[in-house]
Amino acid sequence: MNIGWYLAVSALVFAAGAAGVLTRRNPLVILLCLELMLNAANIALIAFARMWGNGDGQIFAIIVMVVAACEVCIGLGLVVAIYRRRLPIDVDELRELHG
Amino acid sequence: MAEVLFFLAALGAVTGAIGVVLVRNPFFSVLALVFHLLSLAMLFLLLRAEFVAAAQVVVYAGAVMVLYVFVVAYVGAAEPAHLRAPVSATQRSVALVFAAALAIELFIAVLGSGLKGIDTEGAPYRAGFGTPSQIGELLLTRFLLPFEVASFLLLIAAVGAVVLARRRGGIHEEEERVTATSLLRPVGTGTMAEAVGALTGTPAHRPLGPPTDEGVEREPAESAPRGGW
Amino acid sequence: METAAWLVLAFPLAGCVLIGLCFRALPARLLGWLGTAAIAAAFVCAVIVFLRLQDRGEDERQVVFVAWDYAKSVGVDGKVSILIDPLSVFMMLVVSGVSMLIHLYSVAYLWEDRGYARFFSYLNYFVFSMLLLVMAGNFLLLIIGWAFVGAASYLLISFWYRRTTATRAGIKAFVINVVGDVGLVLGTFFVFRHSGTLDFLGTFGSAKQDFAGHHGALTAGLILILVGAFAKSAQVPLHTWLPDAMEGPTPVSALIHAATMVVAGVYLIARLHPLFELSPAAADVGAVVGCATLLIAGTIGLAVTDLKRVIAYSTMSQIGYMIMAVSAGAYVAGLFHLMTHAFFKALLFMAAGSIIGAMAGEQSLDRMGGFRRALPFTFACFVIGGLALSGIPPFSGFFSKDEILLVMGEEGGWHWILYIAGYVGAFLTAIYTWRMIFRAFWGEPVPEAQELAEGHLHHAEVPTNPGTGEVEDTDVGFPGPAHFIAERSRPMQAAMGTLALLTIVAGIVLIPKTTTWLDTFLEPTFAGSSVVVNQSNTLLYLGLALGTVIGLGGIGVAYYVWVRRPGTSAVVRARLRPLYELFVHKWYFDELIDLLVVRPWGWFGRFGQQTFERVVVSGALVGGTAGIVRAGSAAVRALQSGLLRAYAALLLLGLVGVALYFLLQST
């Protein structure tokens, strides 16, 4: 298949992830949608790596996975901490950080 | 053959993505994402990235998603009743418009860009492309620094997660914790909340002494400047 | 000669600094003698300079010594340079000599004052500044010396700093002096613009060519310089500070406001005479103002009752003579009068200090009387000074005043008005001088005089301000507890005796037809002067006779009014009530200045503070800017709602926008 197809898939997944971030209220699901966006970027990276024929894109994708893992770690830790404090797990309710 | 596999994997990826977004129950969202990740692994294989595909399955779908499952189980999958209030229609449509705009833009950017390489199937395949040995060689030669930094990042994340999630019992209660900077700071400065007399963690306006019973008093700093210019 | 010249400056400066630094370490009395010794050393060096200068040939009597270059950039040549020529040596001798005697007087006069050391430090500083002024070789040092003497005057007038009247007088003097300073500096700019050099000799040498087409600029510059001279020399209309300056201790009045500082304006005009000769308009302004001052001050002197203020107005009047003289070209005559005036005026002030001491601080003539028996020495000094002031031969004042009026007469033209005014002024001078003397020393002895005649110096139980009657104490900042009279104090007698002697004999340097010592001495400085004076004999003898007659006539009038028929003055006052009111209110100059200058300025300041500052600056500019910022940040703050999804939406919006931009760019 042309590389273009893969990029189209990447774009669709990214858009879906973005829509999810804007729409959902549960922080867990928002984090999942963030994962979607990261994965979409990964597809694009791997596709370009294939296009160029060298492994740079793949290394990039691996590092992205590492970062995603770290971010999930922290995000979920936050969610757990919020849950422990008996606060609602809802981003519309958690709005103390305002100007 | 490759095209058929591609379309199957692509369909699976997109379906999984949409499923993550639309499904109500977070647990099912996680499952949808797992399905999406597996489809992605298929796509990676089609792109000759063997190692990344394997890593995707083992690390992403295998470890990260398991973590997710644990947390979702702990927190509770069902959204409580009072959260059942749907997102307002305007918000939903605006979000959809955004996402659609984004998708269209990306399409145009990528496909209409005139990049010649996109129309091809990629560079001629070299033996060893995408194999673990190539990845390993790259990681330890050209990309050594990002590799090391990434490991450092993992360490920080691990420590951070532990700190965030444990019970507060190891260090002093907030009222007693006085840092050097708070002693040196003149009265009335500090964050806005402190200046206007809200609950503060560091009693900058109180002299050092045994903490009072009721915690921090709610009095404003004595010599705080009056309002106005 | 160079070392001696610099030492003349160095000694008073060293004295000032030393006394200032050691005022706690050393006993005050020692510091007083130290200050006097410093000025005596300066005088000795000045004499040495004088002798060395005379050793030189006629053509080499204008020497410039440069210590270092102070500022040399953008065409300005500021050097620390002194000019030693007959004029500056003359001034050096007068200043250091009279200062030395006044220091000697002060050693005894302020013996019990708590601020003794401070006084001598200030006095030394003043002498240093005055010497700097007269020795300056360029405009820069002149202006520096000018400013310094103004500062010294302020410090010394408000020496008794806890007296409100004294501090107010000090401020008044300083402010009016600053007005003069502005005039001087601006005038210097005008001159410098065309001459290109700050150096005196350089400016004078090329003056004709430099100002050939710029007469307007020269006249404007010189009139501004005259403003400076008038402020410093207390000429109308910048004269209001001088009577108030009598708040300072009597030695200060003697030194600064009689003998030295107030004659700085005269010196200035004499020094800049080549420029004044190129601009007759400016010179005429000077002459007219001098003439007006001598008449106005003379009339006021007839009416005021404070002893020191009478002498102050007489100073103003005599300086009017000097300014008139040097503006009209009678340089030697004007400087001669400067010297003799320094002698007899300092003598009069010292004697006034003595009689004020006998009155325990009281200065009003209304309360004085009959001190002839009790204060013989003081009386003798007053008489000698009074005779010199009134222009009675053979005292020095006679020769100097007549010399001035002679030159006025010989110049002809409209200077005849000055000539007549001068003699009218001389008549008034004689009257008010002897009014003062007769009132203080003739008549029924007042209680203080009676006490003194019995050998007991009057002592006030409660020290008070002589002008307002406020109660004071005798700690630092107020006069000390003890008062001193000449009869009981050797240093005071020595100083006053020397001055009396000088008053009597100083006329010898320029007796018409007989000696021309002063003329020949000052010749090199004024050699290039275009004012040619031919001595006509008729005018000379007429002048001499007229001067004597008028002087004696004035004394006679005063005798008649205040001794023979004591009620006459009251009768005259009643008859000429409006005139008397005008004189006693000092021609309403203070009120006029208050109306024209002080009030508008005060209104302006109040307007600036209450309206402009409050409304425009704080309100609109500062407050407005802050308000805009506040409104803007409030608007931006509204974006931070805390809602995660709103943030995400904004992020996405931004991302889409940027991507769109790049997309459009690339097409």
Tell me which CATH architecture of one domain in chain B applies here.
Up-down Bundle
Q: Reading side by side through the largest sheet of chain C, how are the strands ordered?
A: 1-2
Distance between the termini of chain C: 90 Å
* Poorly predicted ranges of chain B: 214-229
Quaternary organisation of the protein chains: heterotrimer
Structural class of chain B: mainly alpha
Shape of chain C: globular
Helix share, percent of chain C: over 70%
**Tally the helices of chain C: what do you get?**
27
**Share of helix among residues of chain B?**
55-70%
Radius of gyration of chain C equals 30 Å
| Outline of chain B | extended
Main sheet: strands, sense, barrel of chain C: 2 strands, antiparallel
User: How many DSSP H or I helices of chain B?
Assistant: 8
How much beta of chain B, percentage-wise? under 5%
Class inferred from helices and paired strands of chain C: mainly alpha
The tally of beta strands of chain B, per DSSP, is 0
- Rounded to the nearest angstrom, the distance between the terminal CA atoms of chain B is 76 Å
Radius of gyration of chain B: 27 Å
